[in-house]
Amino acid sequence: MSSWMDVVKSLSMLGPLSLLVACSSPPAQAAPPAAPPAASRAEPAPAASGATEVKQGQEVQQGTTAQQHRLQGIDVSHYQPTVDWETVKTSVSFVFIKATDSTGVVDPRFSSHWSGARKVGLPRGAYHFFHPKHDVDQQIANFTRHLKSDPGELPPVLDVEEFQEEYQGFTCEQLAGMVQRFSQGVEKAVGRKPMIYTNHQTWQTSFCNHAYFTDHPLWLAEYMSHPSQKPKLPQGWKQWHFWQYSETGKVSGVPVAVDQSFFNGSAQDLKALLDTGRSGASAVTSAQP
């Protein structure tokens, strides 16, 4: 969700790691997930991007009529330490905020960003950057303890994206089993099925397009040269709910570059996605693939 230098900075917070690319010979770790009911931020740039980012002024002026009227939002972390939330609210409809990372890291700006967005009435979702080599239950605990008293209005988010070699040494089934365990733990703790943040390449190579998660809402990361282009969906999902289309956006109220996302639906659809006790995956009814 940010530059490569940010990956290094974020990983330095964790101390030395034995970094793990998926689907190679596994150590005996997580059990594979159960059969699917019907049929995954440290903050690196998504591995599937590689396209030229577009900035806010460009996308609004150059996009089609449909894109011009899409609801837009941002995601922030300690890389955006200063945010004027009153100003931000005039140009965005939602925000995702980094909460935690691995088993013990808490984003140093989470508390101030979380409360600041709440004060101005901006719908919020918190995200956790997943590390497959670190204990899953401890990661669940690290994430959910910051959400139990105030879980936010949007679904909690599990950020799964391969970087460096962290996923090396695990099979797709093992990685899917870890993410399933995380999903179930979060849903048990906060009462909502988490949304998956990923890109089609990571999902294909590291999770083998596992079908278990296709009932989870999807926040898709893919940077496009023009917002009229359509992002590539991971196999199994029929639509994206949020699409992070740029990591170099400019938004009034945030003095540095910021990630930007579209919501795939109307204002009424977004309202339905807010915390009403339902799974977010079924709340978007007018979205397009």
Description of the structure:
- The chain is α/β, with parallel strands linked by helices and 289 residues long.
- The chain has a single domain (4-24, 40-275), classed as TIM Barrel (Alpha-Beta Barrel).
- The protein has nine helices and nine strands.
- The chain has helices spanning 4-12, 56-62, 65-68, 85-88, 110-119, 136-144, 172-190, 200-207, 267-273, and strands at residues 72-76, 94-101, 105-106, 124-129, 157-159, 195-198, 218-221, 242-251, 254-263.
- An eight-stranded mixed barrel has the order 1-2-4-5-6-7-8-9, surrounded by four helices.
- A hairpin with a 2-residue loop joins strand 8 (242-251) and strand 9 (254-263).
- The longest helix has 19 residues, at 172-190.
- The protein starts with a helix and ends in a 16-residue tail after the last helix.
- Mean pLDDT is 79; it is low at 3-65 and 277-287.
- Belongs to the glycosyl hydrolase 25 family.
- Keywords: Glycosidase, Hydrolase, Signal.
- Residues 58-70 have a biased composition (Polar residues).
- One of its GO terms (biological process) is peptidoglycan catabolic process.
